[in-house]
From TrEMBL, chain A:
Protein name: Na(+)-translocating NADH-quinone reductase subunit D
Catalytic activity, as annotated: a ubiquinone + n Na(+)(in) + NADH + H(+) = a ubiquinol + n Na(+)(out) + NAD(+)
Recorded topology in the membrane: Multi-pass membrane protein
Membrane-spanning residues: 43-62, 74-96, 102-119, 131-152, 185-203
Keywords for the protein's UniProt record, in alphabetical order: Cell inner membrane, Cell membrane, Ion transport, Membrane, NAD, Sodium, Sodium transport, Translocase, Transmembrane, Transmembrane helix, Transport, Ubiquinone
InterPro entries xref list: NqrD, NqrDE/RnfAE
Localization, UniProt: Cell membrane; Endomembrane system
Amino acid sequence: MGLLSKKDSKLILDPLADNNPITIQVLGICSALAITAQLKASIVMAISVIFVLGIGNVVISLMRNVIPSKIRIIVQLVVVAALVIIVDQILKAYAYTLSKELSVFIGLIITNCIIMGRFEAFALGNGPWRSFLDGIGNALGYGVILIIVGFFRELLGSGTLLGFKVLGDPIEKTGLYAIGYENNGFMLLSPMALIVVGIIIWVQRSKNKALIEEH
Amino acid sequence: MAINTDKNSYTIIFSVIMVLVVGSLLAFIAQGLKPTIKENERIEIQQNILYAMGVNENEEGSREFIAAEKAEQTFAEYIKKQLVIQNGEVTEDENAYLIDIKKEKNLAKDPSYSRRLPLFVGEKDGKTYYVAPIRGKGLWDAIWGYVALNEDMVVQGVFFDHKGETPGLGANIKERFFMDDFTGEKLFDADNNFVGITAAKGNADPKNDNKDDNEVDAIAGATITGDGVSAMLKSDLRLYVPYFQKLKNN
């Protein structure tokens, strides 16, 4: 028996695979399409969402008995917005170029449906520890997909990973480019992210038939 | 113990306390990080000016700024003089790059105020560059930039940036493919009138081979941002014309 009980570890592991927020619940697609042209931006976005969702879920869970039900959505929004502003300010101070690249997307975390969804569906009805696990689990599930998509888009679109030219130099014609390989510029455009997400969904569902909905 | 969370008075007291707590927390954090953020913005101005001049990390035409750690030193190396033009008078000021263009533009709404115009004189490979800051409005928010000119006010390089233009459309003004089109463009027409440079749709010159037409190819889907770029080039660079005329006559 490890650190977590079976029920608790399910909270973390479920969203990673069989209840993934992006591929199964199809939430948080907007940011998954927008910022995944580079692996680095995907990783930072994933970390930011882990931070915001983990802490946000705990805060909401601690407040769940005192939040007036009439204004609970507003309270949730205030909590996310405050956390997002903190993330934004810290990035501006310590990772300035990155915060410029992410620009509006950091602000968009506020509207990320995963966050509001977890607050409303889980944190309002569960204790802080379980809410924390649920938040981390869902954010990780979101982050994993983001990083997979970012990996393929940067590799196939720019021929780089985290900025390193892993496939050789397209101008000097070294590495793969020497034998006539070309970068696929399409991969840098948002629609290709949707296609990559689609392929992930396809692979996942064909491996686990239970996920296929009946029509 | 159960609190009746449905009562109106409770709701109001709750929201007041929440606003106070969250507000002061954010104010505290913002104040604490302010000096670091200000310093980052200062370095960024230096990076932008160098970028417009074509001094980039790696080499000419590279997409990357001079690294932040090297910016201060590289700036001092390439920028020979920083000038402030006010009322036709030119003074040197080594902190001219810190002049807030937004503030100056606002102050200049009062006709009795004469605007301070910063101009950075840089040298690279024996050529002299005059870099002027510009600022205007895009579709959603502010856009700004730096334009490197030669003695004849022919554009040698530009850098544009924006606060919140649409990603993939207006935000592309800061992409190399758009900015590079400006290089070599003239601000004067054939009759020597100041006309600026227009981001034009359907100018039948998508490769931008014609450098005398005062036009660059606009970005599809970014009409208003493009118009903003044209407008700020025209309105802000016009102010520098007297200085360049004087420069020529001497």
